[in-house]
Structures are given as C-alpha cells and as structure tokens.
Amino acid sequence: MSVEITFRKKYPNGINLTKIYDSKFKSFGIVIKLIVPNDKTKVPLYTLALDILATSSRKYPEMEQLSKELSNLYSASIGSGASKISEYFSLSLTLNCICDEYTIDNEQVSEKATELFLDCLLDPNLENGVFANKYFRLCRDDLIDDTDAIINNKRRYAGILANKRIYKGENYSLSAFDYRDVLKNASPEQVTEAYYELLKKAYIDIFVTGGNNDDKITDIIISRLSELERAPFGEPEYDSFSPLKTEVCRDSETIEANQSQLIMAYKTDNYNEYASKLFNAMLGALPTSKLFMNVREKMSLCYYCDAMLSEFKGTLIINSGLDSNNISLAQEAITEQLEAIQNGDFTDEEMDNAKLYLSEAYLSNYDSKYDICTWYSFQFSHGTFDTPEEKGRKIKAVTREMLIEEAKHYKLDTVFVLKGENGGNDDEA
Questions:
Q1: Pick from 212, 19, 5, 21: which is nearest to 102 by CA?
Q2: How big is the CA angle at 343 (ends 240 and 298), to the nearest 5 degrees?
Q3: Residue 347: CB atoms within 10 Å
Q4: In a 10 Å sphere around its CB, with 0-12 CB exposed, 13-18 middle and 19+ buried, how is residue 180 labelled?
Q5: Which of 334, 109, 63 is nearest to 212 (CA)?
Q6: What is the pLDDT of residues 35-69, one digit of tens each?
Q7: Are 375 and 308 in contact (CB under 8 A)?
Q8: Looking at residue 424, what is its pLDDT?
Q9: Where are the alpha helices (DSSP H) in 364-387?
Q10: Low-confidence ranges of the chain (pLDDT < 50)
Q11: Which pLDDT score, from 0 to 100, does residue 187 have?
C-alpha cells in the first residue's frame, strides 16, 4: 500500500499532529479533534460552538461569503462532527481540499484553504465579543431538532434507552437527550465562554491525510495553534471497562410502534482484542453469522439480529427488531447461539470465513483518506501503530481454543426491550 505515516509528533502543550500520506488521493483533509471529558453540562455547549465555527469566520461573517470563498478554492469544504469515545467526547472540525498539483496551472490553493480553515477555528465571527446571534440560533435549533428526531429511529432510540441501563452511573450512558435542556437554555455568552475553554483545555489531536505531503501545511497548523494559551486536562485514557452487574438488569419501556426492539448486553473482564472481534463477527456481525443464519433466517424470529462490540467498554451488544410475540423466543434463541460458540459448537469453515471477512474489512480503510485517519486515531488510542495488514495477520493467528476461552468470559449483564404497541409510523429502522 502507498499509505505512509510521514510525520507524527506530540507537542508539550497537549497537541498531537500526524501526517498520513497516500499518493492515490488527489485531495487532502485536515481533521482537528478536540477531546474532552464527557460532561453533560459542558459537551452540548462545546458541540454548539464547533457547529457555529463551521459556518463563518471574522473575515467571512456570513455563511454565503464563506461558501463562496470555499467554492473559489475548487469547492473546498469545512464541516464539524461529534462523537463519544469511552468516557470522553471528541469534537472535530474538518477541511477537505484539492491538492495543488491537480488545479489549473498548479494554482496554490492548499495553503489558502488551510488558513481559511484555521480562521474558522481560531478567529470566529463575534458580535460584541460573543458568537453572532444569527448562527447561534440556527445551529442550536438544528441540534435540538436532530435530538427530537431520534425518537423516529426506533433502533437508535432503543439503544439510547438501553445504554442508560447497561452503563448506569457511567458517563458513557449520556446521550443527546441529556444535553437537550442545556442547549435549549444556552446563551451566546455561555457558548462563547465554552469555546475559549475548549481551545484552552481540550486534548487536541490533528491529522493531515490524503495526497498532500507538503510540510508547509503542517507548519501553518502548528504555527497558528502555538499561539493558543493552553492548560489541557491531560492525555485521555480510553479503556474503561464497564463492570458486570451482580444481577442481570431486565427492564422495558413501551412506545407506539409496529415493531419491538430487543437489546442484550454481555460484559467481559478479560478482553483480548482479536479473539473478541472474531467472536463478535462469528456471532452476529456477518451475513453468515450464527444470529443471522439461525435466529433471523431459519427461525424467522426477527427482522434483523446482529452483534456489535464496544471495545473501550468491554461490552458486546446484541440488537434485534422483532414482533412483540417473539421476544421470549428470540431471547432463548440468541442465548443458544452465543452458548454454542462458548461450547465450541462451530466449524472451522465458520471461523475461517470470519477471519477472512475481518481481514478484508480492515483493508477497506484504505478506500478513504478519512477512514485511514480514523483507523490510526484508534490505533494510537490503544498505544499501537498497527496497519490494517498487521491487524489482519493477528486475527488470523487466533486459534479455536483462544476464541472459546474469550467467548466464555462474556456474561449477560442487561436485557432491555422497547416494546411496540398500538402501531406507529414506518420509520422504525
């Protein structure tokens, strides 16, 4: 593969910068991640601040002006995003831009786009020292609308409710619903204060990724960010396994819907990354998995049934959408399939297919400059530099005995049902 980490440095002020070069891309991206503890009084304000930053800057105070300037730079784009990572929250600002060698007459746009991008982050559009009310209200209302719309996606909504039980007492249980009241009552002054606090205290992880290998880009970034007054809270420690409950939590809620949602969570205190990923894949992450082939296909007990691994929390979660009268049968069938793997009741072919699937899935991270950026960000959080090929080799080295032993450590922690009653809309995915 042409992918190469050409630069990585940890600076003493809580800033990391990594350059990942891949010659097959004709564009490059800059991802600035600001990582903070997941505090429900702070995170919604931080998120709103980042969304506002992506709309304008002091130089281009109107969204239309910023969009026009980005269009002049060969349709460069700036966006924001947010996600949970264990007990932390990652807020990101992202630039996408064409590489100079692919412009007409080799016009130098990369440095201009980088400066424009950093202006959005470091020199925002303020009115009387606070965020402009126009974009404050626009971004706040969009975030609230997105939160209110979650209930229409019954699978996602059920997951949020289940997490309250699975991770009770942990910050990982927080969701957009916990942030809503803070957003609703926020003021431009509060969000501006949160913005300055974010720049000062967040752990900052920066990636330059794609087809640009020019040192000028990284020099500009470090030069601009070095001007910040910094007092970061420290480097995040992501691994935070959720403790197994002394007694299985069994709970339910009802909602107007045609389908019900069944969520079963299993936890381990003996996590082996490769054996666990193989176990998860064989159980419910593949089209040939035991849950899909048996619970969904042969028994026809649900519309979907799959498994997902929350690595930082040492938790395996099984999701299924089904008719209410199949809930008990589905629980029994899911338990039988999980115990089958724990008892070694699987073929070498099943295991080999899962290894092949995972190995190929790892390689698909090379398809996007942002996917490979996410890949290495995850590796660094685990203290490794493994390439997708290296991960694939480690997966293939897992033996039947290792897999069975790993599977046996997963114990049932929570069973949650979002029970559909009285019908509902069709948006129940």
A1: 212
A2: 100
A3: 8
A4: middle
A5: 109
A6: 999 999 999 999 999 999 999 999 999 999 999 99
A7: no
A8: 57
A9: 369-381
A10: 426-429
A11: 98
Question: What distance in Å separates the CA atoms of residue 234 and residue 237, rounded to the nearest whole number?
Answer: 9
Q: At a CB cut-off of 8 Å and minimum separation 6, what does 371 contact? A: 364, 365
**CA separation for the pair 137, 130 (Å, rounded):** 13
| Element containing residue 51 per DSSP (H, E) | helix 43-53
| Of the candidates 183, 50, 216, 44, the residue with the CA atom closest to the CA atom of residue 121 | 50
Q: Which residues are CB-neighbours of 64 under 8 A, at least 6 positions away?
A: none
CATH superfamily membership of 4-225: Metalloenzyme, LuxS/M16 peptidase-like (3.30.830.10)
pLDDT for the residue 382: 85
Residue 427: predicted pLDDT: 46
- Looking at residue 70, its amino acid is L
Q: What is the residue type of 329?
A: L
- Secondary-structure class of domain 249-422 per CATH: alpha beta
Token digits of residue 207: 């990636």
- Residue 429: its pLDDT value, please? 47
Cα gap 362→387, rounded to integer Å: 9
Comma-separated ranges of CATH 3.30.830.10 domains in the chain = 4-225, 249-422
